[in-house]
Amino acid sequence: MKRAGQRVVVGTEAPQTSQTSKKQKTGFYGSVLGEPALCSSMDWGSLPHHVILRVFQFLTLVDRARASSVCRRWNEVFHIPDLWRRFEFELSQPATSYLKSTHPDLIQQIIKRHADHLQYVSFKVDSSTESAEAACDILSQLVNCSIKTLGLISTAKPSFMNVSKAHFASALTVVFVNSKSLSSIKIDDTPVDDPSLKVLVANNSDTLKLLKMSSCPHVSPAGILCVADQCHGLKELALNYYILSDELLLALSSEKHVDLEHLRIDVVSENPGQAEFHTIKKQSWDAFVKHSPKVNIVMYFFLYEDEFDVFFREETPVTHLYFGRAVSKAMLGRIGMNCPRLIELVVCANGLQPLDDELIQIAERCKNLTAMGLGECEVTCRGFIEFVKMCGGRLTQLSIMEEVLIPDSDYSLDRLHLEVSKHLGRMWFPDMMPTW
Predict the structure, then answer these.
(1) Could you tell me the domains of the chain?
(2) Which parts of this chain are annotated as the region Disordered (predicted)?
(3) Sequence-ordered list of residues with C-beta below 8 angstroms from that of 96, at least 6 positions apart, any chain
(4) Cα–Cα distance for residue pair 144/187, rounded to 1 Å
(5) Which of 70, 309, 375, 426 is the most buried (most CB within 10 A)?
């Protein structure tokens, strides 16, 4: 391969003039003064396969397809299996979505020639039922696949939930039956059901490590146990709180079940006041943590303030807490009292009452806390510095918006960042809001 700027010379080279010298220096990229690039000096068709392959990997799918028509050699590279190990099908309706949809002809070419090369596959669909059904049709054709990672991503609801359960389950089981090497599956907000999970387990029990299926109303605790009982390599599980129960935690704590490293629980309320949340007993949590002492229990809350009543009234071994909606001072106080394993806390909003006491209590009792984020909340500079002082250098992530902090007689915002930096052992500034 010639370097950019080198010329291919046939026969005797003419003496170099100052003009040819200048062109040779500018090389392939051309001159900043507008002189023509020496594209003719490069024989792109003879580049090594691995170089063309590397270039193709940086191209969008459309550009890659266009490049494949340049010459036979580039078309050969276009069909090299390594280029099709990772692929995202984008499916959308032009009238309702900004997404660019993968061309149907290209989809059929991929299914015909590269289905057995696909290993890391995702489907990104818009909110239309038609796009979700198109994804199911593609899944149904992957009979020669050996997929390792599968993700079904809806950019907006409802999408997959509007597809008939029979159609979706039939399409999904085609992949479950034929792959036999699935290790990571993300099928949130889909009509997957217990029989589908049994098919998954029957064909991929030795390889499955991660299963995310939050907001899947047709999955029961029995379906979860079927997976956990037979997939002994399972490390990460994500599900909705409505599936979680004392019985499920106790069953997961049995020696015959897998040792989870991450359990993610989504606590979601779509309509305020219409959902009643049950309580998980402390004994059930204790049994689960005793069985898997290093497990991370991650909880995402999307509730309204009056729906938190049943949570954290007893000690709960949660390690990561994310509040996507406003949470009360009383709730944060309970977290400080009853979440001793807490590692990370993110609060989207609280209101207009300073959280000094709550943060100090969290710093006192949550000895493992290393990450904190506060959004639309308030805390005095004095209280915030006291919190940071108590946590010390173990706070590896600290994200606080500047408008959260209330200056007081002891600390201005200018002095605050110096004090906080001193206790953290590194330079720190509060986050700034964009100016648009």
Answers:
(1) 46-83 (1.20.1280.50), 86-219 (3.80.10.10), 314-435 (3.80.10)
(2) 1-22
(3) 126, 127, 128
(4) 21
(5) 375
